[in-house]
Design brief:
483 residues, alpha/beta, Rossmann fold, GMP Synthetase, Chain A, domain 3, four-stranded parallel beta sheet, four-stranded mixed beta sheet, globular
Length: 483
């Protein structure tokens, strides 16, 4: 049970005819899923994929992604999820850097044909290309399955970082690590075979893949993938499929809670993270859902800390919980969060220098996040090292300003960045997404003056329709600084 192929076979034995996967008209039991995954593994093997080869998957959340990804792993290959928002050049870069032996690619998604773009640009594509159509249900495969011996120490996947501060890096994990973090997440969320899990987080991200697909694989919860987020469509799916588990970034909960007449009564568990979570939003979520947990993780460690259902409301609203999945936690210079444990990545693909910079000689992963740990061992994230700025000699953490702005009626969301200033060194600029149009610059500044010390009050406010984000929900503040 320390390899993903073993977990697929075990799920078929344990959960059999129970519903494993629901994607529109496609409904599949765990036994059927196992059969199809083995058949896909056979397709890869017949196409020349050998154990240790890398298989790239560039497709939206769907049953296609689940079957092909698990099939690649059962063929002994290493999975390389590709961000569906990547350009052809960015996708080609990942294919080259991983020496991908096969590519599973959506033929058209969000108005783009990615395979056509790659070929039109003259980029190299693997010899084995398997197009899938998000609009077309999977046609069950017949044929011999592949049974390949896989070790818990074999590399299961290479997940590329979001690249918010530079070129993305490929974090490598072993099978035992991928399953280890999924088990810890499932245990703290008390996920069981009775649950129905709506996966909106992209599968190419660890939140959707490891805290989504793998959690369901280990627990028997039904996987209900969703390719894109639309609040009304998601609310209908929650109602019609009686969804019980729905993790995601803070923005999806705000959209669902603001939707008039949405029936969210079946939900019992919401888990959020990926961005600063306004306390007021957590309070609203606690009123609407049975259990709300906050967590902290990153590509290089997946799930590092998490609250538990027994934690009181204040703890959930103000912290990211305690270390989980065998992690040790401490803070270092400038209160940087450091992590050590069995599930820290194996390293960055073909980049020993970046690996050495991220993981020190004592095995501590330097996350680049700033936080504090209370006397109970609970972590609170205060900001990113690169986001903190110094105004008039005082450290300003934008997250604190954003928490204050979240309590101003009319603010849907905000992001604060430091901008150069001749006199003070740096001053804050707040980018605000309004709920309605009544809010003025002076309203925002007056609110901040009431709640914050003078040096923390932004000197400028810019209203915007939306904040730039990467697919995992993190605001791309470098883009805001360039405006």
């Amino acid at each position: 049970m320390d390899t993903i192929p073993a977990a697929v076979a075990d799920a078929a034995r344990r959960f059999g005819a129970a519903e494993a996967l629901v994607d529109g008209p496609v409904r599949m039991s765990w036994r059927e899923l196992h059969e199809q995954v083995r058949a896909v593994a056979g397709v890869f093997a017949a196409g020349g994929v050998r154990p240790g080869d890398r298989v790239a998957v560039c497709a939206p959340n769907s049953h296609h992604w689940v079957l092909t990804a698990l099939g690649a792993l059962c063929a002994g290959a290493t999975l390389v999820p590709v961000n569906t928002r990547f350009t052809a050049a960015e996708t080609a870069d990942l294919l080259d850097r991983t020496h991908a032996a096969a590519l599973v690619v959506a033929d058209e998604f969000l108005g783009r044909d990615r395979l056509a773009e790659l070929r039109a640009g003259g980029y190299r594509v693997p010899d084995l290309v398997l197009p899938v159509s998000p609009a077309t249900p999977w046609r069950p495969l017949d044929g011999p399955g592949a049974d390949v011996a896989v070790s818990p120490e074999d590399v299961s996947d290479v997940l590329f970082t979001s690249g918010t501060t530079g070129r993305s890096k490929g974090a490598m994990s072993a099978h035992r690590q991928a399953l280890g973090v999924a088990r810890a997440w499932a245990a703290l969320g008390e996920v069981t075979a009775e649950d129905r899990y709506l996966v909106i987080n992209p599968f190419f991200h660890s939140f959707g893949y490891k805290a989504g697909i793998l959690v369901c694989l280990l627990t028997g919860a039904t996987i209900v993938p969703r390719a894109t987020f639309d609040a009304a469509a998601a609310a209908r799916l929650v109602r019609d499929e009686r969804i019980t588990v729905l993790p995601g970034p803070p923005t999806i909960y705000r959209s669902l809670l603001d939707l008039p007449g949405a029936d969210l009564s079946s939900l019992r568990l919401a888990v959020t993270g990926a961005a600063v979570v306004p306390v007021v939003l957590v309070e609203r979520m606690q009123e609407a859902f049975g259990t709300v947990l906050t967590a902290y993780g990153l590509t290089e460690a997946v799930v590092a800390t998490m609250c538990s259902p027994s934690d009181d409301a204040r703890t959930v609203a103000h912290t990211c919980g305690r270390p989980t999945a065998g992690f040790e936690l401490r803070t270092g210079d400038r209160d940087e969060i450091l992590l050590r444990g069995p599930n820290v990545m194996l390293g960055y693909l073909d980049d020993p220098a970046a690996t050495a910079a991220a993981v020190d000689e004592d095995g501590w992963l330097h996350t680049g996040d700033v936080g504090r740990v209370d006397d109970r061992g609970y972590l609170t994230i205060t900001d990113r090292l690169g986001d903190m700025y110094i105004s008039g000699g005082f450290n300003v953490y934008p997250a604190e300003v954003e928490q204050a702005l979240a309590r101003l009626p009319g603010v849907a969301e905000s992001a604060v960045v430091g901008m150069p200033d001749e006199r003070l060194g740096e001053v804050g600029r707040a980018f605000v997404v309004r709920r309605g149009t009544e809010l003025s610059t002076e309203d925002v500044l007056a609110h901040c003056r009431r709640l914050l010390a003078n040096y923390k009050v932004p000197r400028a406010v810019e209203f915007t329709d939306e904040l730039p984000r990467n697919p995992s929900g993190k605001v791309l503040k470098r883009l805001l600084r360039e405006r």
